[in-house]
Amino acid sequence: MIVSFKNKGSEDVFDGINSKESTKSCPPDIVAIARRKLDQINSAISINDLKIPPGNRLEPLKGDRKGQYPHFSQAIATLLPKPKSRL
Predict the structure, then answer these.
(1) 39: domain CATH number?
(2) Binning pLDDT at 50, 70 and 90, where does residue 78 land?
(3) Which residue pairs from 19-25 have beta carbons closer than 8 angstroms and sit at least 24 positions apart in sequence?
(4) For the chain, how many structural domains are there in total?
(5) What's the pLDDT band for 69 if we cut at 50, 70, 90?
(6) What span, in angstroms and rounded, lies between the C-alpha atoms of 31 and 12?
């Protein structure tokens, strides 16, 4: 479940809002892909849910970022049992 975002633009992309911030955060030609990926993150119950498809290349980071995972979005995703409802 996504509980916070790195910036307002990423949150606007997730919420389907076409704003100045969302355009800065995500080029218009990939908004649909970004929204799909953010929906996948939001629907995940565990980190293992994000390992499919393998193209996600989800591997744990090392060093001072141990315990974190890289991802294809600018969202800061924290996985909790219940997904955020979309209004």
Answers:
(1) 3.30.2310.20
(2) very low
(3) 25/74
(4) 1
(5) confident
(6) 10
